[in-house]
Amino acid sequence: MALNKSMHPRNRYKDKPPDFAYLASKYPDFQQHVHTSLAGRPVVNFKEPEAVRALTCTLLKEDFGLSIEIPLERLIPTVPLRLNYIHWVEDLIDGQNQPRRGIDIGTGASCIYPLLGATMNGWYFLATEVDDICFDYATKNVEQNNLSDLIKVVKVPQKTLLMDALKEETEIIYDFCMCNPPFFANQLEAKGVNSRNSRRPPPSSVNTGGVTEIMAEGGELEFVKRIIHDSLQLKKRLRWYSCMLGKKCSLAPLKEELRKQGVPKVAHTEFCQGRTMRWALAWSFCDDVIVPSPPNKKRKLEKMRKPLSFTLTEAGLKELQAKAAAIGCTAHSSVNSITALVEKTLTDLRVLHKRVPCGEQEQSLLLTAVENTWIHGRQKRREQTRQLRELPRAHQLASGAPTAAPASTEGNGDKKASQPPQAEQIGSGGSSNEQTDRQKEDAEHVTDEDVDMESSCTGAGQETGASGPLGKRPLSPGAVPHFLFKCLLNVMPEESDVVIEMHWVEGHNKDLMNQLCTFLKNTLLKCVTKS
Hints:
Blueprint: H1 20-26, H2 28-31, E1 34-36, E2 42-44, H3 49-64, H4 79-93, E3 101-105, H5 112-121, E4 124-129, H6 132-144, E5 151-155, E6 174-179, H7 187-190, H8 211-214, H9 219-234, E7 238-245, H10 251-260, E8 265-273, E9 276-284, H11 295-305, E10 308-312, H12 314-326, H13 334-348, E11 352-356, E12 363-369, H14 377-398, H15 413-417, H16 421-429, H17 432-444, E13 485-494, E14 497-507, H18 510-530
Parallel strand pairs: 3-4, 3-6, 4-5, 6-7
Antiparallel strand pairs: 1-2, 7-9, 8-9, 10-14, 11-12, 12-13, 13-14
Helix pairs in contact: 4-5, 9-10, 12-13, 12-18
């Protein structure tokens, strides 16, 4: 799931991602890294350091007029993510387009935060760096963009953070500091060993960076604690102290550390870009600063309120109405026909539903899902197909035809032949209890990819994706004490099309509603493609 829509509201890439085709036509250095996907779209391989560097340099040139150079053996920043951090600092200090002073701890070879802050807002920066190569490149990038009057790059000793950097500037009050700390504690963590959930997919982009940029003793947790220790001595020399975090699990212990130290003002946020999530923490000792509200709660609420929807176009409605008529629906309107098909599918899935009042041309259903019966439908159909293939063999055994069974089992042949195909399949695939346990385990770890993608419309009386007799289904949604989720499903006309929306009401996991929505969509569209 792409997270671009959750970027900072002022991020220029939030609603307008980079146009790779346009950029490739304008910048030859970038063009060689743009390829065409199977769907015909221009794409960039983010696992190639050269491609990531070309994209970063191209975006900085196109959108900010900045020309920079970055060595492949040092950290290559992504522009949209860095913009999120800049915009959040603007929120902290109310400093958009105002002259402010900031410190960038470990500015890197790109010197990207000072370059963006100075170009966008006219901020003054003290940029520190411990690595010789990074220091040389950062100094060169500042000079070639004529920003030496706003950005001062200083070389500092190893393990230097704020105290040593401010020794010579005792009179200056800074508005903020920024830091992209080393995320990892050692080489194993940097390679993803013991630091990444085994169920998570591998990173979608390459991990570049020098040792001092990606690793520190104790990882980012201890690194930020050192900044907190410095801030306890500097106090109001900086109005806001801030750091970006690569791991969500680092946020809680750092907030607890700030609480223990009696820091009065603490703020945090999320940075979203593509499939990447980062977190940020800020704190202040000043009484007059305003702590911005964390946007993640608002984003989660908006996500919960936003309905899931899909559209059935006019081209397929006639086929769907014919399918509805075949199961006994006599309604002439496309909305009523689609509603009948949806109700049929919900009944087969044992999802409780009842009609509720709505607009004149609409239909609305209140759904109560008691169990997850819509996952792994493809696997169930394959199992049924395999059972059907076994029927000729079963008839052959029942008729006494010779088999290849050993002589020692000849006496059991009739007994085995008398068993129904279902029993033979269970015997080959494990006990029914084992199957039930596997289904429960699958339900706990289900993703959108587990939703059946080959569903088909069925006639009346057939079960689709169900795992038990329909007679066991409770008669009324109100009589169900425990459920997975409840939602409101609306079937509405939209010009010549029909739109289906699913609104979350309550429950434990909205992903399950997403899966059911995908199942319904695939089922209806499969009816059209089979016609």
